């Protein structure tokens, strides 16, 4: 379960970093992507303009903050997956709180997280928390004293 959650988290964070980076460094791409969206039959004329206004209302600096939050989420998931360290869970959780604050308090408006996004984020944090027993605590992994490691008793 940890593998699945971590991989999905890393894919989502990676995609968000790419999107936010394009919008932060190349704001003209927002206009181009909105022209593309306008041609998709499932969006009406007013819906695509609303989406266009939402993405244009975010400043490059705010996108950079979102990029930092997503990079931290990616790093936390990677540490949980690759190193099996519980510190990755804490990094991921802090990144999600940081992203929540950015979206709801700094940017706000239509970019604010709705209830379903908050519930999904909390659910994923809870699912990660249930997997903490499979991860090493950071203090326990760093100790190499003979009393803490029964394998060293044979070397005496």
Write up this protein.
The protein is mostly helical and 156 residues long. The chain is built from seven helices and no strands. Residues 140-150 have low confidence and may be disordered.
Main pleated sheet: none
Q: How many domains would you count in the coordinates?
A: 1
Helix content: over 70%
Strand content: under 5%
Total beta strand runs: 0
Features of the shown structure:
7 helices, mainly alpha, 73% helix, 156 residues
Sum this structure up briefly.
Helix content is 73%, strand content 0%. It is mostly helical and 156 residues long.
Give the arrangement of secondary structure elements.
Layout: H1 2-25, H2 28-38, H3 45-57, H4 60-83, H5 87-107, H6 115-130, H7 138-142
